[in-house]
Design a protein that fits this description.
61% helix, 110 residues, mainly alpha, 4 helices
C-alpha cells in the first residue's frame, strides 16, 4: 500500500474556500449596487445619462472570473492569464473613470 502525503487531503480545500469567498463578495457587491444609477444621477449634472451603467456591473464579474481562475491555476501559463483577467477590470475602471459621473480621481491618478 502506497503511503499518502498528509498535505494531499487539503489540496483542493483552500482554493475552494477562496472561490466561495470571491463569489459571495461579488454577489453582495452586485446586490448592494442595484440602485447604482440613481446614486450617480444625484451627483451628476446630467440626470438622464446612462453612461457607465453597463460597465459597472461587468467589472466585478470580470474580477470574480479572474479570482476564481487564479485559485484553480495549476501551471505558470494559467497563473499569468488569470492574473491578466483579474487586472483587466482595474484597467477598464481607470480608462473609463471620467465616463461615470463624478468618479473619484484618487482611484486612478493621472
Amino acid at each position: 500500500m502506497a503511503r499518502r502525503e498528509p498535505w494531499r487531503c487539503f489540496q483542493g480545500l483552500y482554493d475552494n474556500i477562496y472561490i466561495i469567498l470571491a463569489l459571495v463578495a461579488t454577489a453582495v457587491t452586485l446586490l448592494l449596487s442595484v440602485d447604482f444609477r440613481a446614486v450617480i444621477n444625484l451627483s451628476s449634472n446630467d440626470s438622464k445619462s446612462q453612461d457607465g451603467t453597463g460597465e459597472f456591473y461587468i467589472l466585478p464579474l470580470l474580477a470574480c472570473v479572474g479570482i476564481t481562475s487564479l485559485c484553480k491555476a495549476s501551471n505558470l501559463v494559467e497563473l499569468f492569464v488569470s492574473l491578466e483577467v483579474l487586472t483587466l477590470s482595474s484597467f477598464i475602471r481607470c480608462l473609463s473613470g471620467s465616463a461615470v459621473g463624478n468618479a473619484p480621481t484618487w482611484l486612478c491618478p493621472g
